[in-house]
User: Fold this.
Amino acid sequence: MSHVAHEIRDVASGLWIWRLSYPDWRPEVGWPEMVTSTCVDSGGEVAVLDALAPPEDATEIWERLDARPPTMAVVLKPDHVRDVDLFVRRYRARAYGPWLFWRSNIPETELEPIEPGSKLSGGLEALYDGRGRNETPLWLPEQKALVFADALTSQDGELRVWDTPHIDRARAALRDLLQLPFVHVIVAHGDPVHDRAAYERALELPPWAGEPA
Assistant:
């Protein structure tokens, strides 16, 4: 296997991310090559979110996963299937995700469907982002963190809402999430970790009009 850039970052107690070069990435896709996967230890469960499998030489990531094996694998958006099947096979994790998938990107695993308002083991809660892309961001109450697939993105270090034909509805839904006492925000594309103030600013900035996500 060719070398794949990777890194690990701790976000809070029981919450960490790893970042990898996305396979088949092309500059014209409109988002950076490195993408983020999340691991959270909550309520006796260990969940990986939108997990992309590290290469075998990324031993630090695999050793950390193996030390606290995931019990859950969650897909946050229909086009973020990534390597959920591999994590289910390797760790015998339970899998959760959307009701529907793109016909060209369907997991082999039978996922337990989630929708906004779904309560998952470990205290995790699926949220509504209003963008019309069937994304279910997750609220991680123990770590006071929100984890998004594509509802928000970070371009040049600045958190932005990813544009959608339903931007007014999306802004309203994302503003509703300010009722939650979160202090961390994790996004899949761009600089991955932000604070509450950056989230509040993103709601006032023009949306990011990159390739639809």
Q: What stands out?
A: The longest helix spans residues 167-176.
